[in-house]
Each structure stands twice: as structure tokens, then as C-alpha cells.
Amino acid sequence: MSVNAAVEALGPGMADRVPYATRRLAVTAAASSVLLVVLDAGWGFLAVNGALLAAWLIDWLAAPKPELIEIERVIPEVVTLGARGEIVWRVHNPTNRALWIAFADELPPSLCARTRRARVRVPRRSYADVRTVFRPARRGRFAISVIAVRVEGPLGLGARQRSLRYPTRLRVYPPFRSRDEAELRINKARILEVGLRSAQGRGGGTEFDQLREYSVDDEFRRIDWSATARAGKAIVRTYRAERNQTVISLLDNGRSMAGQVEGVPRVEHAMDAVMMLTAVASRLGDRAGLVAFDRELRAVVQPGQGRAQLGRVTEAMYDLEPRLAESDYRGAFAQTLARFRRRAMLVIFTDLVEQAVNETLLPAMPMIARHHLVVIASVRDPEVVRWANQPPRDASEAYRQAAAVQALEERRRTTARLRGCGATVVDEMPGRLAPRLADAYLKVKATGRL
Questions:
Q1: Category of 203 on φ-ψ map: left (φ > 0), alpha (ψ -120 to 50) or beta
Q2: How far apart are CA 290 and CA 246, in angstroms?
Q3: Which residues, 6 or more positions from 308, have their beta carbon under 8 angstroms from its beta carbon?
Q4: What is the 3 state secondary structure string of 119-146?
Q5: Contact at 8 Å (CB) between 423 and 364?
Q6: Are 205 and 449 contacting, i.e. CB atoms less than 8 angstroms apart?
Q7: What SS3 state is found at 358?
Q8: How far is it, in rounded angstroms, from Cα 386 to Cα 391?
Q9: How is the chain split into domains, by residue range?
């Protein structure tokens, strides 16, 4: 055990009472020993080591206490998963001489910081900034507190060290990968609302908007004959999609959503779809909300409109982790119906595992299917699809193909049962779930099914 390790074993209460040996002390001791061996001056070992020990203790006594050093950790409050962030440590030396200050921050490994240690020379009564970048590999809430600070003496042989608390909180949000797709659909829906036509656009809404003069692109059935007679020219009615409808995302946070698809849990893909649905619905005049549940309710966001609603939904989801237990659909549906009595579009994010759906979701479906429009959203595993379609080369691949084919067949049966209960099922590959779900919502909105 090294001298410094032995000191640390004494505990934080003794950390400032015992001197730390620096690298300079070790190098000096090694060099002097080699020199004495070369000179064959064995008698000098005791004198040299005694002098070094005395210098070490004197240097430690001359080193300022770490409590005098101020370190400010500047870190963003919110970072998106996988995005680049920067940490700045601002070190303040309030003493009347320049100091060498080393520190190590208590950064979680999942932040993937380039470094968490630094050694910097700070002039007297001055500041020095140390920077590093990080790219978080896990979303959630991070509480960062302790920084170990080491202050060296004037000779650089001894140092004082103390663990000091500088509490900081960091939130890592799920990435909104479908943001561009959401903006595209919002803009397209708004174009259709004002009466312009798109080659792929369908429907013009069912809520009356205004009267205007007929144009060649208008349908004859939109002509208002009474207004035409009064004006002496063809007048048509224009319609817009209904506003102030309610869309509730029910996010399953149970065991079935912990399984990984393309290297991340299914719940991560579902969160991206929740954010896209919330962005599209709230920006088009409808009210979007969230209910996250497993055995119990984990988060509830009241339906709201506007750009701020996406932030509220993201804030409610970012630190959710799947619970390895079966989800209570009856309890979640009962509490949802108690909170939101008005007819709404209920979008359930889950996995289409046949046994789990048959035992938990299907028995609870009549509670919500009577009075609400129900959509089931699930992400399909592309690797299972590939295994089912790839010709086997040996016996193990043949067994794998058979299992994949069976899994897909069970998924089709589950989808058919859910549709038989009156639900719309959106089962898509990663990256396509969010856009297809938004399209399903826009179709419901355009046809007035709510």
C-alpha cells in the first residue's frame, strides 16, 4: 500500500491532518538513491532520507488548507442523451502566492466525460478555468457533489487534500430523433387547413371555417348554394380540422418495455413517439397529455397546448426506467378515466407480446374502448424480421428462423385480437413508429373521428 493510499484509508476526517506525498517527492527520493548508489555513499542514505522527510513535512505545513480554495462547477442543467456538453471548473486561489491545485470530480461514468481530473497553476488572488466535454450514454437525473481537492506546498513535495462538496444537478433528456418529421407534418397540416392542396393531402376537416369564392381546385360538394345566390357567383364553404380535442399517451413502463431493440430499451423508442405525437397535437390546437405507468402511476401530465407542452411531457419522462414487473392496465385505465372523462384519443405504448397482451391488456380493453378512440403503438424488432426472412446456413440458424417466424405469427395474432376490440394498431420498425403514429393521428383529426 502506498503512502497516499494509507492516508486515504484513515478516512475523510484525517485527510487534512496527514501530509500527502507528491510525484516530485517520489522522483527526488529515487534520483537521490540512485546517485548515492553510484557514488557508493551508503552512509548518506539516512541523512538524505531524513532531509527529504523534513522537507516534506515543512512543505505540507506551508500548503494552504483545501477549504480555502473555491471551485465552481459550471455544467448545463439539461443535456440530451448522446449530445455533447461542456463542464467548466472555475478554480479560485484567494491566497497571496501562486499555487498548484489538483482536483478530481465525482462524475458518473455514464456521462462519458473526457476527463474528471486536472492539475492547474493558479496565480495569487486569481482564477483559472479547466474545461472538458462529455457525451452522456444514459438519460436520467444525475446528482454530482464531491470534488477531491489537493493543494501543494511551495516546494511541491507535500500537499494537503480534502473532499469538498459542490452539489450540482444534471438532467439528461431522451433524444427527440423525430423532430424534423414532426415539423414536416405540422407544416403540412397547416397548409391543408388554409385551403391549399397537396398532392398527397387528404381531407379538409369537418369544422366550418369560412366562406370564400370558388376556385378550380374546390370540390362541387363544398359549394354553398344560398351564399352563391346572394353573391351572384360561386361560393364554397371551407373547413378546418377540429381543435381542442384531447390526445393522451399512455406509456407502459413495465417489464415488456425493458427489452432492447437496436441496442436500446423499447421504452426509448416509445418516448420518441410520445414526443412527436405531443409536438404535433399540441401545435395543431389539440390538447396532449401523458400517463406513464407500470404497477402504479409514475407520471401524469395534464393535457395542454402550445410549444411548452412538449417540455412538460419530456420533463415527466426523462428519468423513467422500466420496472421489471407486469404492468397494471386496469389500474392505469381506471385512473386515466377518472382524470380525463371527456372522449379522447388514447394511445397506448406497449409491446405486442402475445401472452402479456392476452393476460393484461385485452381484459382491460373494454374499460376504454366504449367511449374513447384507442390506438396501440409498438416497435417491431428488425433483427427478428431479418432472422425470419434469412435462409438458414446450419441447424442453429434454422432453429433461430423457426423461433423468429413463430414470434412474428404471434405478433400478427395479437394485432388481430386488438383490432377486433376496436383499436387501431401501429406496429412499426424503429425510426418509423413516430411518423406513422403521427400520420394515424392526423387521419383521425381530418376525418373527425373524435
A1: left
A2: 11
A3: none
A4: EEEECCCEEEEEEEEECCCCCEEEEEEE
A5: no
A6: no
A7: helix
A8: 10
A9: 1-173, 209-240, 246-447
Q: How far apart are CA 292 and CA 163, in angstroms?
A: 39
Q: Please check the confidence at residue 21 and state whether its pLDDT lies above 60.
A: yes
Name the grid cell of 301: 401530465
**Burial state string for 94-127 with b = 16 or more CB within 10 A and e = fewer than 16:** eeeeebbbbbbbebbeebebeebebeeebeeeee
Closest-CA residue to 439 (of 189, 244, 238, 249): 189
What is the reported pLDDT for 14? Answer: 47
Report pTM: 0.78
Q: What cell does 150 get?
A: 489537493
Does the domain at residues 246-447 carry the CATH identifier 3.40.1180.10? no
The amino acid at 253 = N
At 31, which helix (H) or strand (E)? helix 23-38
Residue 3 main-chain phi, psi, to 5 deg: -60, -45
CA distance 416 to 341: 28
Query: Given this chain, do its domains 1-173 and 246-447 carry the same CATH topology?
Result: no
CA-CA distance, 179 to 385, in Å (whole number)?
A: 27
3-state secondary structure of 377: strand
Question: What number is the average pLDDT over the span 295-320?
Answer: 94
Phi/psi for 59 (5° steps) reads -65, -40
Pair 276, 176: CB distance under 8 Å: yes
Element (H, E) at 199: none
Asked whether the predicted pLDDT for residue 8 surpasses 60, the reply is no
Residues 6+ apart with CB under 8 A from 62: 153, 154, 155
- The answer regarding whether domain 1-173 maps to CATH 3.30.465.60 reads no
